[in-house]
Amino acid sequence: MKNDNLNPQFIQLIKDATKAPSGHNTQPWKFKVSENQIILKSDYSKRLKVVDPDDHELFISLGCALENLTLSAKAHNLMPNVSMNFKDGYDEIVIDLIESKNMQKDNLYDFISKRQTTRREYNPTPIGKDILDQLTGLEERNDVEIMLFSNKQQIERLTPYIIEGSDLQFANKEFVQELVSWCRFSKKAAQEKGDGLWAASMGFPNMPKPIGSFVMKNFVSAKSEAKRWANLIDKSAGFALFVVKENSKSNWVELGRRFQRFALKATQLNIKHAHVNMPCEEIEVRKKMIADFNLGTRHPLLLVRFGYADTMPYSFRKPTEEVIERVE
Ligand SMILES: Cc1cc2nc3c(=O)[nH]c(=O)nc-3n(C[C@H](O)[C@H](O)[C@H](O)COP(=O)(O)O)c2cc1C
């Protein structure tokens, strides 16, 4: 919709929110705007039915956008009051916004535009404890924990699960089909669509769509991916596994908020990160991790690697007006 007559501050808040990460860069969100309120809703037309059948990654993505939105509110002298409404058929995150001169800007706000998912090799030298404490020591979020794997032995324990998850996904034609449908093989396609996985941000050369699809379907195999992952794991300084106490939409959103703060803090510390979600997505592999790491009834839902590295090209976003709905 057109932005005429909409509060320009609210538009800025939504623009900042949409810079959040989302699975396959689907941007599965809508923002309903009224006078003193923004309602963040899921856009189920962006579901990833194969890789995320229960939508937990969709709600994690909403949590990332919510965290950006609240940081932006505080930076614009607005006090955000968040309530989640997932009962009785509702599916809404309500953010009441009240003007306040006493709001303190959180420095993480300055890193919203600089954050990115960086999919290249990192410097594998371990990162010192004081820096790791800064990375994970931000305030606790209810029902979300971070497990760190920051030395060689710990990382070696994770490795077989990553490879098994990747093997299962790349042996699954439907997974590859869904992935390819979100790949944008040229800059023009990535810019025009404003979503999806642009080849350059994945570390691949730009190419015409038919060639890109052909390469993905015929030359990228479970075997070639396992080899690529073995190298990327070897070139990681550490991993962070995000765990929820139990599965619920609100916990998935909380996990997204916690992860987004981690990602922004990493950006502030000049540390890059990228997702390695296969072992969390493949339910049988997730169960093995739960047993091996004594997680009991808890669920490991998001895995990222991290380390020092150079920046890569940034991914694109849909124009802000496309995700806004106005309430008259
Ligand atoms: C819940 C969630 C799951 C993700 N899973 C993966 C993944 O398995 N592999 C990957 O390379 N990127 C993954 N990503 C990163 C997204 O692809 C990335 O956020 C999106 O392409 C936008 O790029 P940006 O983060 O650089 O802005 C995930 C992001 C989120 C929020």
| Percent in helix | 40-55%
Mean pLDDT, rounded to whole units?
A: 94
Estimated share of beta-strand residues: 15-25%
The best one-word shape is globular
Succession of helices and strands? HEEHEEHEHHEHEHHHEHEHHEE
Q: Identify the strand order in the major beta sheet.
A: 3-4-2-1-11
Distinct bound molecules:
flavin mononucleotide
Q: What class do helices, strands and sheet pairing give?
A: alpha+beta
**Sheet bearing the most strands, described?**
5 strands, mixed
Terminal CA distance reads 13 Å
Residue stretches low in confidence (pLDDT < 50, at least 5 long) are none
Strand runs, count:
11
Number of helices: 12
What is Rg?
Answer: 19 Å
Please summarize what this structure is.
The chain is α+β, with helices and mostly antiparallel strands and 328 residues long. Helices cover 41% and strands 19% of the residues. Helix 2 (56-75) crosses helix 10 and helix 4 packs antiparallel against helix 9.
What does it look like?
It is a single chain. This protein is an alpha+beta fold. Helix content is about 40%, strand content about 20%. The protein contains twelve helices and eleven strands. The chain has helices at about 10-15, 55-75, 130-135, 150-170, 175-180, 185-195, 200, 210-220, 220-235, 250-270, 280, 285-290, and strands at about 30-35, 35-40, 80-85, 90-100, 145-150, 185, 195-200, 240-245, 270-275, 300-305, 325. The strands form three sheets. A five-stranded mixed β-sheet has the order 3-4-2-1-11, with helices on one face. α6 (about 185-195) links the parallel β6 (about 185) and β7. The protein is globular, with a radius of gyration of 19 Å. The chain binds flavin mononucleotide. Flavin mononucleotide binds next to α2 and β9.
